[in-house]
């Protein structure tokens, strides 16, 4: 995971303006509160010409969307059709998600939970000898010092789960053999964050 720095996005915006190009940003993963703001690009102060959305927009129901500034939008309502275009169930789910994300205090809560997770991961990383956590909001990555450590932790996290013994597992995303990515639900609780951090440390310190 390589974060686009604000100065990079700002330079990209200037370049597009100078050359008469459209700036299109993919916010499928970073949009709708994932970084603690409605759009991930907000932190840079950059306004794209076109923005793409998906995944979190439907809260688990498949949907995607494209937003465009009026000056560059080539569609009138009804122009773009398709088999699943305007699906009532998916659109209802998206509206419910937007109501929740735009509710007063929701994004502030995401920022608070993100701060708790980041602080916990940084503390764990310091004990393990890892570099500082990367990312923003509830989209973070931890680089581990040992080869294949992330892969092994992900395998142990699944193997640990045992419903019969009321023993929770931990679903981890090892995007590289030494790197874990964290994208928890925006509504994750402080208790769940603390439990996940404790389980993660146990998995990483396990000799097997």
What is the fold's blueprint, element by element?
Elements: H1 6-19, E1 24-26, E2 50-53, E3 65-68, H2 88-101, H3 106-128, E4 134-136, E5 139-143, H4 149-160, E6 173-176, E7 179-182, H5 190-205
Helix pairs in contact: 3-5, 4-5
CATH class of the largest domain, named Alpha Beta
| Helicity, as a percent range | 25-40%
Number of DSSP helical runs: 5
Can you tell me the CATH architecture of the largest domain? Answer: Alpha-Beta Complex
Biggest sheet character: 4 strands, antiparallel
Strand arrangement, major sheet: 4-5-7-6
Q: Write down how many β-strands occur, each being a DSSP E stretch of 2 or more residues.
A: 7
The SSE string, one letter per element, is: HEEEHHEEHEEH
* Average of per-residue pLDDT values: 92
Q: Which structural class fits the helix and strand makeup?
A: alpha+beta
| Low confidence ranges | none
CATH superfamily of the largest domain: Aspartate Aminotransferase, domain 1
Number of structurally distinct domains: 2
Strand content: 5-15%
Please tell me how large the radius of gyration is: 20 Å
The gross shape turns out to be globular
- Return the CATH topology of the largest domain: Aspartate Aminotransferase, domain 1
Give the end-to-end Cα distance, rounded to a whole number of Å.
28 Å
In short:
The chain is α+β, with helices and mostly antiparallel strands.
């Amino acid at each position: 995971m390589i974060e686009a720095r604000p100065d990079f996005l700002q330079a990209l915006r200037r370049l597009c303006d100078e050359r008469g190009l459209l700036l299109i940003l993919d916010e499928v993963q970073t949009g709708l509160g994932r970084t603690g703001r409605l759009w991930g690009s907000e932190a840079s102060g950059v306004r794209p010409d076109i923005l793409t959305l998906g995944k979190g927009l439907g809260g688990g129901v498949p949907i995607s969307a494209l937003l465009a500034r009026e000056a560059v939008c080539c569609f009138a309502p009804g122009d773009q059709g398709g088999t699943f275009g305007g699906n009532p169930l998916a659109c209802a789910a998206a509206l419910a998600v937007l109501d929740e994300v735009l509710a007063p205090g929701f994004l502030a809560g995401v920022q608070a939970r993100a701060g708790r997770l980041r602080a916990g991961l940084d503390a764990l990383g310091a004990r393990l000898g890892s570099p500082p956590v990367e990312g923003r909001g509830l989209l973070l990555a931890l680089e581990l010092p040992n080869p294949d450590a992330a892969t092994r932790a992900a395998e142990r996290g699944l193997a640990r789960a045992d419903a019969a013994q009321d023993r929770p597992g931990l679903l981890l995303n090892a995007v590289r053999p030494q790197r874990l990515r964290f994208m928890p639900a925006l509504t994750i609780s402080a208790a769940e964050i603390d439990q996940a951090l404790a389980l993660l440390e146990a998995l990483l310190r396990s000799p097997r």
